[in-house]
């Protein structure tokens, strides 16, 4: 026989506490309860709503028994749980006359029969049997009635103690301050922290005023206060932990392609060979679509990403990825699960494109980098109708998708390359510079080719089929399903649009041409506009001039009749296109040689010598500048105008040549070669 609490019920005539007042139950109809308040106001509520309301209780009855915390009971020490069960045996015998677990027909012991002895007499008999007071028995019985076995547990065994124990409050505060100061400092030991705490207490309260515990006790206090903060572990982990938001993490969600695209830049964990032979790391800038996890574009640059690189990333996002010579036919969009026919009908350039979706962003999420906050990038987004959303300062979790993509690229791609540096110095190999074999253009082509089968066609754990949740989908599969669900057409980016993405300045068109950065640009096409007002009164009649920072051999002037390409007048003196940082370095070399660094002809001769003698050996700084110049010029170009079919594929039955659809994007590199 076991103890059983009476089943709590709600009857007509009961008074309940509800909605900050007392109400009487006047009727029960199905799941509805009719109540009459103490002010004679009647209302009807659902029984489930009534019983779940805050403060609900049936007045005039015993409180509802609470369930025992079974998880906590299982974690109790065995002696404590055994003692509680022994008390349960006695309390149940006092209440019912029989201890728990007795069989049918068992007769109560003398003094415990409810038919003969009152409850008070049974309490007294049990108190005499156990050698305790009657009040102790009454208290145990009351707690058991309200809390079950948990009410009989010795609460000293489960009492929560302060993590700081009996330490002085001033000492605890000083330790907390010292631990906070360790967040951005180099990792030290507990002994260093103890010394700093002692010095801080002596400075604030005087020597010997605040008691300092033993070293062992102090270390225990430090361990308790630094739990989860990595105070004596990795400095990177410590800073990242301190930088986490205090609120709950909210996963980023997007329901259609382009609803949110996250952009970020980071140094790639691979050593590359610059054109001069110097090894260095490259910057990788990527754009990731949140809805499909598609890497819309990935651009590699020499270290030092510029605003025009971010603008070029937009250009690459908004045009199809062309097939390159040597690529497998399996990488074509026609061989993928993307809606090829539908996309080709909307944009004929998709005919010779690779299997990478063209995604037009609605919103782009960026961090506080000056590259993405530049006028060039913001103006490009405004022109394309893209909203720019900036993350909170020092909160990388606001763009967690692109941050995790960088980590995935290291695991899936970078670690398999020669001269992989690892995530930090502790993971770095020996003499990696000697193992570097890839140049930036080669690595860019390799990355572009890998992204299609290695990322776009690979199942992603965060992409799930809503009807088959256990099945992971690839970014291309997810894009196809989202297109079918919401409809989507890519935007066509014209050649003029690329010019709009370049940095702009405002200059006058004089008799000698246009001057920018101590360089003169002139062309016969400028004849109608010399000494003329542009019509833009806000800019005092100056003309809008765009230039490519990676190729200063020409500029582009907006006129009423369209864009005019204007070359540098000393371009024939220079053997190759050059970047803005190359020009600045040439000016410094000219000044060091005693020449006038504002005389462009003299600087042009120094620049030509700088670019032509790179293969004969340069100082380290000059070699790095030359390498960045050539790698930047080689990779800073939009997708090719004419996608070339795979030359490695065997010839098939002769037939009429397939029409080649031009991509219609301005190629600054090809234009520079034309002017040469």
From TrEMBL:
- The UniProt record lists the Integrase catalytic domain at 253-413
| Pfam families in the record | Mu-transpos_C
For the region Disordered, give the residue spans: 626-662
Which InterPro entries does the record cross-reference, listed alphabetically?
A: Integrase_cat-core, RNaseH-like_sf, RNaseH_sf, Transposase-like_Mu_C
Query: So which domain of life are we looking at?
Result: Bacteria
Record PANTHER family: INTEGRASE PROTEIN, TRANSPOSASE RV3428C-RELATED
What protein name is recorded for this chain?
Mu transposase C-terminal domain-containing protein
Q: Which organism is it from?
A: Streptacidiphilus alkalitolerans
